[in-house]
């Protein structure tokens, strides 16, 4: 058996793994890269394997960083089955065409500029029609049932507790008279995520491919999360502002709706809490994302997958995804009207990392106003607009326009759909028979190294952090067998140049803000001006070096 790591290596997006065993080749996940140009350019690259040799695909869940290149596979000729849970199939039916529409829109916007410059037009990675056609390949499967895909290959989908339909996939492969089991964690959820069941305990594995998004961090306690949320929201509303929540349309939005609905059940009976609760309940909550609206309907159709607490609420007639003051905006006109209104409101809009969709319009109209709050409730990948805002950018570019970041910026990490370091370690610990070897994927390198060290310390298990397109033979002694990447070293350098230029652009934008605001306002001294001048000279030198060695 052999596995090649074709995505989500030392980064948090682009999940894609090639497994070879029992005479078959198959994929686990095929997601889009999201973030900086260095990563996103990989979406344009040819797949590092021959599509015609792929017998089938297994999909852990519907999030675009795991499913978003499936239409590209289809576009390039892939026609074999894609196995996923029934709920994942339902969600992909709305998410992949939406992704195709975004690809078309973004490409159209870029082409307007290219045409004016006399440059060749770009072609989208795929369009909405291709995405819709790719859905014909999906085969829905239930949880907790062993499925025979070949005489020597069996799989089982287990609830990962990350989002509706998300799965930990167990794969049994019999090869050369020997049975081996590899487990792909997919994205692992927290033990206290609203609506969803806790991640399934897996009894044993020979090899484990595990996510590591929060491998170096711990989430805040659940009770503090709700208190923090209501304090941020009510403080903003009291001051006449609006709370804008960039939220992933599928999963996170529904969790936020649940949280808003459940705040009323808080055990806090103080007058202060009652005052804040009344203020919150009198504030309209808008879900401004057609995708999120459709996804919410899919959630309602799959309530049998909710955790026991949520199902008990439903049996009592309390739908956790509905409450007074909740409004859904479908049309562009309704969305625009939100930014033309002077009333305080809570606006939940996609995308969660602020890269595409209506959220960019809401940020443009609200982030400059100090009365407003931009509240982040999920992970922000490096290079994304959301990450720049969270990291403290003074200005950001939205639709080609520099916009000042004057609004209050908050980040409640506890809403993450990913297990933190403690949760990941618990997942490893829960194996009765521990894996012979663990591979860490879907995490930044710093996070992965921290988790690797903790696994070594607690369990004394061998851990590898694969490079992009690195292959491993999975025998009793795991061996790296090389790299199948088709690109040459010069192309690597091109990607590095792009990444460095992106970093320099961000630094220059911050400096421009300082010059305009601080120097002109006489708020910095001569020493600070001298230091700033020296830094600008250093940047000039770096830019020259990049241009000369491009």
What would you note in describing this structure?
The protein has about 550 residues and is α/β, with parallel strands linked by helices. Helices cover about 40% and strands about 20% of the residues. The protein contains 17 helices and 23 strands. The chain has helices at about 35-40, 65, 70-75, 85-115, 130-135, 220-240, 250-260, 270-280, 290-300, 310-315, 330-340, 360-365, 385-390, 420-430, 445-460, 490-520, 525-550, and strands spanning about 1-5, 15-20, 25-30, 55-60, 80-85, 140, 145-150, 155-160, 165-175, 180-185, 205-210, 245, 285, 325-330, 345-350, 375, 395-400, 400-405, 410, 435-440, 465, 470-475, 480-485. The strands form four sheets. It has an eight-stranded mixed sheet with strand order 6-5-4-3-2-1-22-23. Helix 6 (about 220-240) packs across helix 8 and helix 14 packs across helix 15 (about 445-460).
């Amino acid at each position: 058996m052999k596995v090649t790591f074709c995505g989500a290596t030392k980064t948090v997006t682009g999940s894609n793994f090639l497994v070879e065993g029992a005479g078959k080749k198959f994929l686990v996940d095929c997601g889009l890269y999201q973030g900086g140009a260095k990563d996103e350019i990989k979406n344009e690259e040819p797949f590092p394997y021959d599509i015609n040799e792929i017998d089938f695909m297994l999909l852990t869940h519907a999030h675009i960083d795991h499913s978003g290149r499936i239409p590209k596979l289809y576009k390039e000729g892939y026609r074999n089955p894609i196995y996923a849970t029934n709920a994942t199939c339902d969600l992909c039916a709305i998410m992949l065409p939406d992704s195709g529409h975004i690809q078309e829109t973004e490409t159209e916007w870029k082409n307007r500029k290219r045409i004016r410059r006399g440059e060749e037009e770009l072609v989208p990675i795929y369009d909405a029609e291709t995405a819709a056609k790719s859905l014909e390949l999906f085969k829905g499967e239930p949880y907790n049932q062993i499925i025979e895909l070949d005489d020597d290959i069996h799989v089982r989908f287990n609830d990962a507790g990350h989002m509706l339909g998300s799965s930990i996939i167990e794969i049994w492969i019999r090869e050369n008279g020997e049975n081996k089991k590899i487990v792909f964690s997919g994205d692992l959820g927290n033990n206290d995520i609203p609506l969803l069941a806790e991640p399934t305990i897996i009894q044993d594995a020979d090899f484990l491919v595990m996510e590591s998004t929060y491998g170096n961090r711990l989430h805040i306690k659940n009770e503090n999360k709700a208190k923090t949320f209501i304090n941020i929201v009510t403080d903003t509303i009291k001051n006449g502002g609006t709370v804008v929540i960039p939220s992933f349309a599928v999963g996170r939005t529904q969790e936020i709706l649940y949280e808003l609905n459940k705040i009323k059940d808080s055990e806090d009976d103080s007058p202060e809490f009652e005052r804040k609760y009344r203020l919150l309940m009198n504030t309209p909550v808008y879900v401004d994302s057609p995708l999120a609206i459709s996804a919410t309907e899919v959630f309602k159709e799959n309530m049998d997958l909710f955790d026991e607490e949520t199902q008990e609420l439903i049996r009592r007639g309390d739908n956790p995804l509905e409450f007074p003051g909740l409004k859904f905006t479908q049309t562009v006109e309704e969305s625009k009207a939100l930014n033309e209104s002077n009333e305080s409101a809570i606006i939940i809009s996609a995308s969660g990392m602020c890269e595409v969709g209506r959220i960019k319009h809401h940020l443009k109209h609200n982030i400059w106003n100090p009365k407003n709050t931009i509240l982040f409730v999920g992970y922000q990948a490096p290079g994304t607009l959301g990450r720049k805002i969270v990291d403290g950018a003074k200005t950001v570019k939205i639709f080609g326009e520099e916009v000042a970041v004057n609004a209050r910026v908050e980040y409640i990490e506890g809403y993450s759909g990913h297990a933190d370091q403690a949760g990941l370690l618990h997942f490893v610990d829960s194996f009765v028979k521990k894996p012979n070897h663990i591979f860490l994927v879907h995490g930044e390198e710093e996070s992965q190294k921290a988790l690797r060290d903790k696994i070594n310390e607690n369990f004394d298990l061998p851990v590898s952090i694969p490079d992009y397109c690195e292959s491993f033979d999975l025998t009793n002694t795991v061996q790296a067998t090389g790299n199948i990447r088709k690109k040459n070293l010069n192309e690597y350098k091109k990607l590095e140049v792009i990444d460095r230029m992106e970093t320099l652009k961000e630094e220059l934008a911050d400096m421009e803000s300082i010059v305009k605001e601080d120097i002109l306002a006489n708020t910095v001294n001569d020493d600070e001006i001298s230091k700033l001048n020296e830094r600008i000279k250093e940047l000039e030198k770096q830019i020259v070096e990049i241009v000369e060695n491009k």
